[in-house]
Amino acid sequence: MKTNLKLAWRNLWRNRRRTFIAISSIVFSVLLASWMRSMQEGSYDSMIDNTVKFYSGYLQVQDTAFWEERTIDNGFETTGELKSKISKVKNVTLVSDRLESFALAANHLHSKPAMVMGIEPEAEDQITNISKKITSGKFIATGDKSVVVAEGLAGYLNLEVGDTLVMISQGYHGISANGLFEIVGIMTHPNPEFNKRMVYLDISQAREFYSAYNISTSLVVMTDDHTKVAHLKNEIVKLVPERNTVMTWTEMQPEIVQLIESDRGSGIIMLAILYIVIAFGMFSVVMMMTKERKREFGVIHAVGMKKQKLSTIVFLETILIGFIGCTIGLIISYLFCLYFYYYPLPLRGEMAEATIQYGMEPYMFFSIKSSLFYSQMILVFIISVIISIFPIANIHRMKITKAMRA
Known about the structure:
This protein is an alpha+beta fold. The protein contains 16 helices and 14 strands. It has helices spanning 2-12, 16-54, 80-87, 121-128, 151-157, 192-195, 203-210, 229-237, 249-252, 254-292, 294-302, 307-342, 349-357, 370-387, 389-397, 400-404; strands at 59-63, 76-77, 92-106, 111-119, 134-137, 147-150, 164-170, 176-187, 198-202, 215-216, 218-223, 244-248, 345-346, 363-364. Strands 3-4-9-6-8-7 form a 6-stranded mixed beta barrel, surrounded by 4 helices. Strands 2-10 form a two-stranded antiparallel ribbon. It has a two-stranded antiparallel sheet with strand order 13-14. A hairpin with a 4-residue loop joins strand 3 (92-106) and strand 4. It is elongated.
């Protein structure tokens, strides 16, 4: 076996140009497949990241009844101890209180139902980047008695920064709630529905407004790796009281999961077509190499080398070419996608405008998950091994007299 491997290695470099052509075809195949998968998965990661930052976060701790009946009466009392325990779970990066409810927002002439969000300003800004969506005025700070209003709601009520917003609602356990709040900022929310009715205020002021002292409707939990939300849910469930439940972003926004799975399915079909093209490209190179060496095979067989040994050497040559090409392709594709991971491709024109309207950055993002690259390398290597059957079969069918005249 050692002798066969040595002969195969030497045969590769007897004709360097032929070997470089074969290796280049495999390198290009790995690069092309990795590029496509990295771009596809990178777009999903960006979509998930932007989607959860619209509103939900990656996970939420809620009262068991809140998601089905979203009223302030289904809130729960939070403690610093609980938040501290959750924040210490591995991969948890942020835990923030929210108090969500509804109110009738009005000025002196018009009124409209509004969604009121009591938040921890600094923490919430890390989740939803509200401060970057402010179009007029400024974002609220901890302890402020003022509010930030969505652009659509402010436009309908004809209110501007410095004006007073009137809110009337029903507080905790039916208590009457009403108040006057200065508008310090107007924002544009990426979600069109939220942009028509959202009001943000400091959570301490929201609790006072609704007479819901120490009450939150949810604890928003953020992580640095969305693939670990199921694991985080299992860990957090152990920490919260029985009356609470933990929901992941996939449970709160199943339509996004369905969209990604649908697109991933079409992506797999496109990838399969790509692999067929790659297989035919590699096959043509191997076939060319085999036909070029037909006379060589005939001479070697004529001087005494058995077809079995000759087939083994050719098979080892193909394996070596596949291994070298896949290894180089893995390194190049990783470095290639790594560059675009840190410097994503900017989108332009209508595509960029459409992306911005949905609250996403106008860039084509890439993923550098190691599994994406290893899987492409392994698949291309398997294709190269399957293709090696052709020269082996060709050798076994070979007739010495015809091969010698080739």
